[in-house]
Amino acid sequence: MGGGGRRPWPGGAPKLPALTSLARYTLRTASRLLDDPLEAVQQLNLALLERPQLSLVSVCYVLVRESEERVTAEVILAGHPPAYHLRQGVPEPVGEFAPFLGPGGRRGVAGDPGGSRSR
Known about the structure:
The protein is 27% helix and 24% strand.
């Protein structure tokens, strides 16, 4: 009974961990090199478009900035449901839906390929 209780995957090991890893590390690197979070998401979109197979990814990217006066969050959505902000105990959706990254992210919302931005 080999396999340690794991179910076999048709066609070999699942490709999802590799895609998730690509998304995570592309965003992490692009975020450190670029000043604009939307540009970082667009870099991930370009990396997905370079892959030979269909690679759709949804992203909810939140950049939190803290100053002496306040804390702000910039939310970028691509193929992901909105995030929620609790304001006095009431949840409010944040962000606008935009296409998935990958082939769906060739055109974005309001001229921003690969994501929509909310502050």
